[in-house]
Input
Amino acid sequence: MIFDKSKTLFERACRIIPGGVNSPVRFFQPYPFFVDSGNGSRIFTKEGNTLIDYCMGYGAVFLGHSNQEIALEVKNQIDKGSLFCIPTEKEIELAELCNKIIPSAEMVRITNTGAEATMHAIRLARAYTRKTKIIKFDGGYHGAFDYVLNKAGSGASELEHTDGILDESVRKTITIPYNNIEALESAIKKDKESGDSDIACVIIEPVMANSGLILPEKDYLNQIRKITKQNDIVLIFDEVVTGFRLALGGASEFFGIKSDITTFAKALGNGHPISLIAGKKEIMSQLAPSGKVYQASTFAGNPISVTASLKTLRILSENKDIIYPQVGKTCDRLVNGIKDVAHDKGIELTINSIGSMFQAFFTKRPVNSYNDVKTSSITKFSELFKGLLDNGTFIPPSQFETCFISTSHNEEDIEKTIESFENALTRVKEI
Ligand SMILES: Cc1ncc(COP(=O)(O)O)c(C=O)c1O
Output
């Protein structure tokens, strides 16, 4: 595929935007393509190339690009005004709907981005427990702010270290391997033995989606729930990716576990900037102005994002018995197709998948942790990415991301994608 206009645009972008992109994960070698528009499962580049999209706004666009039901409501709201910074009834409607959908959402605060939600969730946990340390997992990503960038996944996995972060905030963050309950027990024990007992929260992506895709082993999340409860540690489920995607009630509903605080973004707004902190009333009511945990934003609960989110959640609620089985089936069909192609070519490929998410790793061992992901051949993954792009399929450019299916992906897309994998894997075999 030819991306000549994108090349020129990228050169222009580099002169004025650091690295030519507004978020590092959008860059890939030699330069990213520039998008013109999207529709359903497809995106159209500036050159007029059509690509089947499995990035889908890094999982945000669950109901397809340019979803007309949502667009119509958003257009109507734009005519009425975009921002008042005074409450609107729709904010209550959205909070009430979330309370109905999410098992643990006794109270809800609307925010704008995933990072904003997780940052304030951690602040809430610290205030509630009067403790200071946090535990996160190797390869877990919770946003680009100071105390969660140690051993972070996604684009941050490419940097050994992020400059500009205070040592003091890093020291408060303990990182441990995922799917290893002994590591959690021993971190808590070590903290107790040091005389501190100072761990405020455990923050976890219930399904890790920023180190490729890693699924929790049987009973792992239940064990975490039990141990955090026993030790008065707040459990934060970061459901920025899994929320409203894995099931209507996210991973909490899927695995039947109630966290103390849960954060949401991405699929919540089908591509509009909106996020949520949800949780127990006694924790959430600490937020100002009812409590002393300050959290504020000009754009929080803005009518455009709230309108998009309300429509998104209404569509998902009304059609949940069709949508979730359907995307799961589509994903299984694609994953099985890719596995067959890899097997026929004698390529060692491990694919993890759950619901509407999947990722392929060029390794023969099971991938259950960040260290397992690192055994995958990045060279082969890059070749796969390039091969797929040349064949009209766009997946996130990094091994440390996840591929996403939307409700718009249909049988024809899947057939074409398997064909793309067939061609791309032939290229991989040649290197
Ligand atoms: C699990 C998780 N948490 C938090 C974030 C941060 O969200 P945002 O990029 O909207 O700040 C992300 C982003 O990819 C994420 O995947």
User: Anything to note?
Assistant: The pocket of pyridoxal-5'-phosphate is lined by residues 58, 113-115, 118, 141-143, 154, 205, 209-210, 238, 240-241, 265 (CB under 6 Å).
